[in-house]
Design goal:
The protein is of the alpha+beta class. The protein has 11 helices and 10 strands. The protein has 2 domains: 66 residues, no CATH class; 275 residues, Nucleotidyltransferase, domain 5 (2-Layer Sandwich), CATH 3.30.420. Helix content is 33%, strand content 18%. The strands form 3 sheets. A 5-stranded mixed sheet has the order 6-5-4-7-8, with helices on both faces.
Length: 380
């Protein structure tokens, strides 16, 4: 064995590749027997920096030191941290673009990358973590592309830590008062693209709770929710699908009760409040609404990491985060710490719903003479 082919743990100084970046390689995950060799270098044209190149000795994949950085393949690498620090603080994509003197489409691509990274970061953070507190669930209503396509973001938060454990989405049918022209337009759209599943909220809550039941410590879980009629049906479905799961003590609180700290639903009510306040695409009467539900889910992932790890649990309280309250972290994180290294999807066991969020599946929909890229789960 040559000196250059030794395992990274035996090498000294400088960057050491932790594993092969090729998902098809047997050493894609870190392993002590993995071997690599240096394979020259290249000069990055944007800043004339010399980048070390490598080659995996097992699969022959060529890669560089930048392969393991979250800014891989980005031309504007300087924007990622700035966009991350602003996206959950209120401004929309175009406001961020004006502040950073770039295009709003560039900001959108960076946010999509941040969303994928945050999905993996969140799952890495919860790896092998057992749930030892009550859970609080609720649906947060928004819409994509137009108000004819509403949907729920279903959140599950810790009753004591206020930590956001998981989220899913449920497409809805437009409801409420409508003019005759609006009813006609809704019927036309439903003829073209199908009608949302009337059990979507039930299915979304089922997908929300299924992976959490596996992480419950013990055989008993206290679950708080409001009086939405789909929630008991979701729990009945879960009991049939996961008969050996923990017993769920479902406690219902009226959604009309005062939303104070004494309300059992306060952790998830606060999550909904912060999502409305901190993300421009969910504000009331906003013009910054998400054009795709996929984009809304990516921003929800960024919001989740921001809420759990970066923002204080209480603004006027001690400098602790929700993740610190669970013992997952020992300090408040910054976005540079969250984005310290690239995360690989093959290293993380994503819930089935989040697999769809990670791999962007878009469908082209035609609205009259306009075409829009529109990601959804409507029945076709």
């Amino acid at each position: 064995m040559t000196r250059s082919s030794r395992h990274p743990k035996r090498r000294r100084g400088g960057f050491q590749p932790p594993h092969c970046p090729n998902p098809g390689c047997a050493f894609h995950k870190p392993h002590p027997d993995w071997q690599f060799v240096k394979n020259g270098h290249h000069i990055r044209l944007s800043d004339s920096r010399v980048i070390q190149d490598y080659r995996c000795r097992h699969c022959g994949r060529f890669f560089s030191a930048r392969t393991f950085n979250p800014t891989y393949y980005l031309r504007r690498r300087d924007l990622l941290f700035s966009i991350a620090s602003m996206i959950s603080e209120g401004p929309g994509l175009r406001q961020i673009a004006r502040i950073l003197d770039t295009s709003h489409t560039t900001v959108a691509r960076h946010v999509a990358r941040l969303g994928r990274h945050c999905l993996l970061f969140h799952r890495n953070l919860l790896e092998d973590k057992k749930i030892e507190e009550p859970l609080v669930i609720d649906g947060f209503e928004s819409f994509e592309y137009s108000q004819y396509f509403p949907f729920h973001i279903n959140f599950a938060a810790g009753g004591e830590s206020w930590f956001i454990y998981h989220f899913t989405d449920s497409p809805l049918r437009r409801k409420g008062r409508m003019t005759d022209a609006q009813k006609k337009r809704r019927a036309e759209l439903e003829r073209l693209y199908g009608r949302p599943d009337p059990k979507a909220v039930e299915l979304g809550m089922t997908e929300l709770l299924r992976p959490l039941l596996k992480a419950v410590a013990g055989k008993h879980l206290v679950l708080h929710s409001d009086d939405h009629p789909a929630y008991p049906r979701a729990l009945s479905r879960l009991q049939r699908e996961v008969p050996d799961g923990p017993h769920i003590d479902h406690r219902i609180t009226s959604s009309k009760d005062r939303r104070t700290k004494s309300n059992p639903l306060f952790p998830v009510n606060l999550t909904d409040l912060l999502a409305r306040h901190s993300t421009a695409n969910h504000r009331r009467e906003t013009i910054a609404f998400s054009k795709e539900r996929q984009a809304a889910m990516e921003r929800a992932a960024v919001f989740t990491v921001w809420r759990n790890c970066i923002k204080r649990r209480q603004e006027n309280g001690p400098r602790t985060s929700a993740a610190m309250g669970l013992g997952l972290l020992d300090r408040l994180l910054t976005w540079r710490q969250v984005l310290r290294r690239r995360r690989f999807v093959a290293h993380v066991d994503l819930p089935q719903t989040w697999v769809g969020y990670y791999w962007r599946e878009v469908k082209t929909k035609v609205f009259g003479d306009r075409q829009a890229v529109h990601a959804c789960t409507y029945a076709f």
